[in-house]
């Protein structure tokens, strides 16, 4: 994302694009430095506008960081859905359901490795859960279909519908699978596995996804 020059920026902002421009600059900072790098003063300086102009769109740093978090979370969900969409539409229902669960995990870790700054932002600045994650409405009253957890929930639902997982084993399975892929992602980007070479990282990912799949049957 290129930083706009002040003259061009001022011209564009007359057309109501300042809020989006501020968000783009904030995302750029989060991408390179994680959530701590998102500073409202730096963002308004990058946009070439005054503090008062920036504050009309984001009341404070927390509001701006919340917007960046929502953006990053959407990109994470997109990475998972892209993996799902790439799956071949063949094989038994059970085989396809297992492949879908595996694809969501792979997409999740792919995003963490490709966008560590945005990944850290998703899980550093989060609103408190409203009554738990599964199928609870957000503030607009509608389930966010592209929420990362909802993508996983639907994949686990597919496993139950396909008879791979019995209904009595359903509860808690989403969270357990999430914990596994999230934990490995953190080990890769911030932990002792960060120095592991790319090919071996994928081997470890495959082994973990194998363990999850084998444990379901």
Please give a quick description of this structure.
Helices cover 66% and strands 0% of the residues. The protein has helices spanning 6-13, 18-33, 40-47, 51-55, 61-85, 93-114, 116-124, 148-161, 173-190, 198-216.
Give the overall shape: elongated
Number of strands: 0
Q: Give me the strand/helix succession.
A: HHHHHHHHHH
Question: How would you state the average pLDDT, rounded?
Answer: 86
Radius of gyration in whole Å, from Cα?
20 Å
Count of individual helical segments = 10
Quote the beta fraction.
under 5%
Helical amount: 55-70%
Describe the 3D structure.
By secondary structure, the chain is mainly alpha-helical. The chain has helices spanning 6-13, 18-33, 40-47, 51-55, 61-85, 93-114, 116-124, 148-161, 173-190, 198-216. It is elongated. 28% of the residues are buried.
Task: Show the helix and strand layout.
Layout: H1 6-13, H2 18-33, H3 40-47, H4 51-55, H5 61-85, H6 93-114, H7 116-124, H8 148-161, H9 173-190, H10 198-216
Helix pairs in contact: 2-3, 2-5, 2-7, 5-6, 5-7, 6-7, 6-8, 6-9, 6-10, 8-9, 9-10
């Amino acid at each position: 994302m290129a930083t706009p020059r002040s003259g061009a920026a001022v011209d564009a902002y007359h057309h109501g694009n300042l809020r989006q421009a501020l968000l783009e600059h904030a995302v750029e900072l989060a991408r390179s430095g994680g959530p701590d790098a998102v500073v409202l003063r730096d963002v308004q300086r990058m946009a070439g506008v005054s503090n008062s102009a920036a504050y009309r769109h984001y009341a404070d740093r927390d509001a701006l960081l919340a917007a960046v978090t929502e953006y990053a979370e959407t990109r994470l969900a997109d990475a998972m859905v892209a993996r799902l969409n790439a799956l071949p539409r063949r094989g038994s229902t059970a085989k396809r359901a297992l492949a879908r669960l595996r694809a969501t995990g792979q997409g999740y870790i792919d995003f963490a490795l490709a966008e560590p700054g945005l990944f850290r932002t998703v899980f550093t600045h989060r609103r408190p859960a409203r009554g738990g994650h599964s199928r609870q409405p957000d503030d607009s009253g509608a389930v966010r279909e592209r929420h990362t957890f909802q993508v996983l929930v639907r994949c686990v639902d597919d496993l139950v519908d396909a008879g791979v997982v019995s209904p009595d084993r359903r509860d808690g399975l989403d969270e357990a699978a999430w914990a596994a892929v999230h934990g490995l992602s953190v080990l890769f980007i911030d932990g002792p596995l960060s120095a592991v070479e790319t090919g071996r990282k994928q081997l470890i990912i495959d082994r973990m996804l194998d363990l999850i799949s084998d444990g379901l049957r």
